[in-house]
Amino acid sequence: MTTAPASRPLPQVTHHRAHVNGTTLHYVTAGTTGSAILLVHGFPETWHTFRRLIPLLAASHRVFAVDLRGFGDSDVAPSDFDSRTSAEDLHHLITHLGIGPVHLTGQDISGATVFRLATGHPEDVLSLTAIEMGLAGFGLETLADVTHGGAWHIGALTAPGIPEMLLTGREREFLGGYAFPAMTATPGAISDADIDEFARTYARSGGWRGAIGLYRSMLREGPEIRSLAESPGLNVPVLAIGAGGGSFTADTMSRVVSTGISAVQLDGVGHYAAMEAPEEVAKALLGFVGGIDSPKDGRKAFGESDR
């Protein structure tokens, strides 16, 4: 079902809603040919994170970028929302759209969501690209440890009642004055209009519940993620794209696959790689999925490094 977007329109994409898994997900599409690429955002983001990446991919692929449950213009999440539910949402969306298997791309806190999808529904996934992404059970929890340089906002988001008390009515100040500036290395990559768009969706009633649910998941699901990594395991080709986090993404993904991964490091780029360096991300992603779509080329024809 196509709907008029609440956000400012971008000519490259079409907005849609899908009723799946007991919720309604908002997603955008672009491109009419080629294999399907599904883009999954992190925090404090929505599908809009990929606004400049999508046209670069859509020249040769069908591109889908989703607002996870609780984020953007998708339905608000319930209080018990977690990454398991988020992964099932994506499975049902892929089935509903008939686009599987997809080249799955996740970043930041969507890591557990895309990992669960790839391990729990391997029929849905051709490949996994991890952008600035970690996993609980493999070191991601340390980001909540403020005594060793962790981020204070993780604890704030996971404490009952605190996000609503501290952030309601201050969404733009939090996003534009702290969250994006603290982890961006490319001046001008995130505009005032972008901040307005992100703040618009977090400012709705219950707008923080998606982030709350995924961060609470992160703090408790380490043993389960480690178990999934052992069995059934992650058995698709993996590309790790690191930026402001250095080798963290590649180091993590190397520990959860039985074969080597491809890895690309974007120097001089902050955490929000898709917004800061869309051309570089597109080049890496297209080279990777192109090698999979054309097996004769082989994955090593692309891999900047294999681990």
UniProtKB/TrEMBL annotation:
<protein>
    <submittedName>
        <fullName>Alpha/beta hydrolase</fullName>
    </submittedName>
</protein>
<dbReference type="InterPro" id="IPR000639">
    <property type="entry name" value="Epox_hydrolase-like"/>
</dbReference>
<dbReference type="Pfam" id="PF00561">
    <property type="entry name" value="Abhydrolase_1"/>
</dbReference>
<feature type="domain" description="AB hydrolase-1">
    <location>
        <begin position="36"/>
        <end position="132"/>
    </location>
</feature>
<dbReference type="InterPro" id="IPR000073">
    <property type="entry name" value="AB_hydrolase_1"/>
</dbReference>
<dbReference type="GO" id="GO:0016787">
    <property type="term" value="F:hydrolase activity"/>
</dbReference>
<keyword id="KW-0378">Hydrolase</keyword>
<dbReference type="InterPro" id="IPR029058">
    <property type="entry name" value="AB_hydrolase_fold"/>
</dbReference>
